Amino acid sequence: MKKILLIITAIALSGCVSQAARNQQQDEINKTIPTCSSQRQCDAAWSSARQWVTQNCGMKIQNYSNDYIETYNSIGDSASTSCQVTKNAQPNGTSSINIRVSCGNIFGCVPDQYQSVINFNRFVGGAVEKVSPIKIGAMMGMADKSGKVVENPSYSFGMVVKSITPNWAADKAGLRVGDIVTDVGNSRIRTQSEMTNAMEQFHAGDIVEFKVLRAGANSVVKINL
């Protein structure tokens, strides 16, 4: 009788994670989901995703393609982790790399599912960061000609500057919040993917011309990388 009681108690305790804690974990996962904006970045992300799955998921890879990785399922009550990874195209031209970790054991997986997802996100995100272009200190989003943020690339006129980090390259060059970047060098810019592809052509020390629409007038901002 004591053994049965202990088992029931363990089952109950395994589910005693508060909703607030779950929400906090989900927020952290969402913040760390890796994204790639160019072929070079996505190749690096996908290669590192396969490496992480091979080294950290308890079950072996069963299916692999350019946008899907799947291990064998966790069998019976095994605590070994099974993993599914997908590359998902986003409306702004980027792709997110998402992992799902599970196991057959009702008491939880080894290693922990939440920590596994966080570790995966950071590992893949680090691989993307290594091949990312130089940051200029400006956050941007797709916008129409009036500067209104849009979700659909078909309606995008350029990338509107949402915020600028003080003393970074964009700030020192005179780029302003509200500017709509339409060209970087010789490249026309409408999406984050196009911005990344254009910036990958340049290196530290280069001076890059940003063509912007500012208060309805065309202007050029030269940014020293």
Description:
By secondary structure, the chain is of the alpha+beta class. The chain folds into two domains: 34-130, TATA-Binding Protein (2-Layer Sandwich), CATH 3.30.310.80; 138-224, Roll (Pdz3 Domain), CATH 2.30.42.10. The chain is 34% helix and 28% strand. The strands form two sheets. Strands 6, 7, 8, 9, 10 and 11 form a six-stranded antiparallel β-sheet that branches. Strands 1-5-4-3-2 form a five-stranded antiparallel β-sheet. Helix 3 runs antiparallel to helix 4 (113-130). The longest helix has 18 residues, at 39-56. The protein is elongated and about 65 Å long.
Gyration radius from CA atoms, angstroms: 22 Å
**What fraction of residues sit in β-strands?**
25-35%
Any idea of the CATH topology of the largest domain? TATA-Binding Protein
The main β sheet shows up as: 6 strands, antiparallel
CATH architecture of the largest domain: 2-Layer Sandwich
Structural class assignment? alpha+beta
Tell how many strands the DSSP assignment holds: 11
- The number of domains is 2
